Amino acid sequence: MRGSANNSAVFGPNGLIERVIFQMSAAHKAPRTIVFYLLPHFTLIAFSSAVEALRLANNVLGFNAYSWRFVSLDGENVTASCGLEIAVHNSIAVERSHLGGDKHPTMAIVCGGRNVERHNNKAAIAWLRESRHKGVALGSVCTGAFFLAQSGLLDGKRCTIHWENYPGFVERFSNVRATTGIYEVDGGFYTCAGGTASFDMILHLVSQEFGEQVPASICDQALVERIRKHDDRQRLPRSIKIGTTNPIILKLVEKMEATLCEPMPVDDLASYVRLSRRQIERLFRTELRSSPSRYYMELRLELARQLLVQTAMPVVEVAIASGFVSQSHFSRCYREAFDYSPHEARLPHPTRSFQVPPSRRDPLLEKAHHFPAERHGQLA
User: What is the CATH number of domain 31-222?
Assistant: First the structure.
């Protein structure tokens, strides 16, 4: 019963007739094969969301329009970042041999996750290059774009990557046109930011081939309330993230985030919103329990932390990219904020966790969990 309802939704009031005609024409076409290359510590949610979207597409259409294979470098099982082990179908070598035969794939998607920069491999890059040369579309989920960019395949292309990896990515790959949307499509390259965005990217792929009604029915099956566009935001609205709807605060924070490498003086920020310095300082104290300069500093130090962890940039370059004019000042501010130096940030510390800046903490949670009192060292 449920399958009939789905097909009626897709094929209209005369769904049965339309469906038979559609399936007869599609029966002569081989399934579009998607190959998922799983890197060690790949993100499960991004991988599984893409596969489930393909499965549901087949279910809604009533025939196997898509098939998929899982691939690893050596053909061995791959462990996701959550610890779940996934069995694969082929090694890179076997998959490469399929490029000239009946098992030729339609698309190859690199599934990244943690420590993606450590898994650069010449055999995998050669396979991807040959795949693209033979007309196979290339894609990535989560940090998979880093792998493609590292191999030079994304040079001059528009792509996206998870927001947490974005700062390091744009610093390292200046030839790539990185955006902050949830997915991008550019000349046979499909990249998405990870998480559930891979579901939206596959919906876009399905809509290109079967029209808008099929993705709509997939969303009904998956209990997804809407189909997101490629340029939808990756993160929660700024008002939710920082805990205020004050339009002046939101405008100031947006300006701060856009000028982290070249911080504006507080007086200039005040002029930007046509208020006095004293007025914006009062607003920040009331809304964010912080001063503008301290909040600005926290944003810059968060950027620095991401660059230190995700890139091999020298500390002095990280300091400059974060808006500091001297490495010594940067190191002093960093240590005061995180209780360890920038150099120590790159050492393996399994028990270390990122400390939420005082101005970002929920006052109710702070009371419940007894966060230590804020240190009032001068960071500005």
Answer: 3.40.50.880
